[in-house]
């Protein structure tokens, strides 16, 4: 089963609606840390006890109803308060389309300002997840507008985009998470070959680090991780300027190994009922993930 097949399924609204009724079946419980705030708090508390930091993603995207977007904004505020109340070490990741970007930019900005105000009061950081290319430039515009007032917000940059390296220029000094990219994009705007994506990933990481920006290296690829370790060591880049990140449920031994070696490590922890699209993209990324999911189903 091809990557394109699972990416196609990830956008199927009927299947997404049905998945909310299934609960975390089909192996999703292996990579999604529950459906409630209490469940995700427990999961992150365990990660913190093992020396790992976290960032929480309340799953959901491409919202088209105003009430749903407003509820999503309120949920983020609840998550921030739960982080403070439970004294856990976690940032919060958000998607602008879940906060109403496809309904109106004004609604999305209202939600973001409310979230950032509470996060700033609580001493927390908000990372804007990058979505598909249709929302790419507007996401960057919103980030730069928000940065005029808030210093506790950053975003994600995708190395499969051909313009990714150049697009770092106006983002100097802004904390960024560098990823390969998980959406299906046209060859006109995105590299299609793994070698090109990987090479651009390293170029983007090195450029942002050289510019002094805090950089999250979000990959499960041990070859890239080793290359970053060598680069930072040879260029005397302090470990405080970067961190490694991986997804919840993946390569757990390597996550602990990096933390044990003294690197800051942050696990990306998704939760919530709207898990279907996220799960399909994880299956699309690597054939090994399909086997991983099947094992999850069998173990139930």
From TrEMBL:
Domain of life: Bacteria
All copies of domain Proline dehydrogenase, residue ranges: 41-288
Binding site for substrate: 95, 281-282
Cofactor note: Binds 1 FAD per subunit.
A GO MF label: nucleotide binding
Biological process annotations from GO: L-proline catabolic process to L-glutamate
Entry keyword set: FAD, Flavoprotein, Nucleotide-binding, Oxidoreductase, Proline metabolism
Binding site for FAD: 130, 158, 180-182, 194, 219-220
Required cofactor(s): FAD
EC number of this enzyme: 1.5.5.2
Name the UniProt record assigns to this protein: proline dehydrogenase
């Amino acid at each position: 089963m091809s990557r394109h097949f699972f990416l196609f399924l990830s956008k199927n609204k009927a299947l997404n609606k049905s998945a909310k009724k299934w609960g975390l079946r089909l192996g999703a419980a292996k990579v999604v840390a529950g459906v409630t705030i209490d469940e995700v708090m427990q999961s992150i508390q365990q990660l913190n006890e093992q020396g790992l930091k976290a960032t929480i993603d309340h799953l959901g995207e491409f919202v088209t109803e105003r009430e749903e977007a407003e509820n999503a904004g309120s949920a983020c505020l609840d998550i921030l308060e739960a982080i403070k109340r439970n004294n856990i070490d976690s940032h919060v990741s958000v998607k602008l389309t879940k906060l109403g970007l496809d309904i109106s930019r004004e609604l999305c900005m209202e939600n973001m300002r409310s979230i950032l105000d509470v996060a700033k009061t609580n001493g927390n950081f908000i990372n804007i997840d990058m979505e598909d290319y249709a929302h790419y430039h507007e996401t960057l515009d919103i980030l730069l507008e928000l940065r005029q007032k808030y210093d506790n917000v950053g975003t994600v940059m995708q190395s499969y985009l051909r313009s990714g390296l150049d697009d770092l220029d106006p983002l100097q000094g802004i904390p960024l998470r560098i990823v390969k990219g998980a959406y299906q994009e046209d060859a006109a705007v995105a590299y299609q070959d793994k070698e090109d994506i990987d090479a651009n990933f390293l170029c983007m990481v090195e450029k942002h680090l050289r510019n002094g920006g805090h950089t999250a290296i979000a990959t499960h690829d041990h070859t890239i991780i080793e290359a970053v370790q060598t680069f930072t060591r040879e260029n005397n880049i302090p470990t405080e300027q970067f961190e490694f990140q991986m997804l919840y449920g993946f390569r757990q031994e390597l996550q602990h190994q990096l933390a044990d070696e003294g690197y800051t490590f942050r696990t990306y922890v998704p939760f919530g009922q709207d898990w279907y699209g996220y799960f399909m993209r994880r299956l699309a990324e690597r054939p090994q993930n399909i086997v991983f999911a099947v094992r999850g189903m069998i173990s139930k």
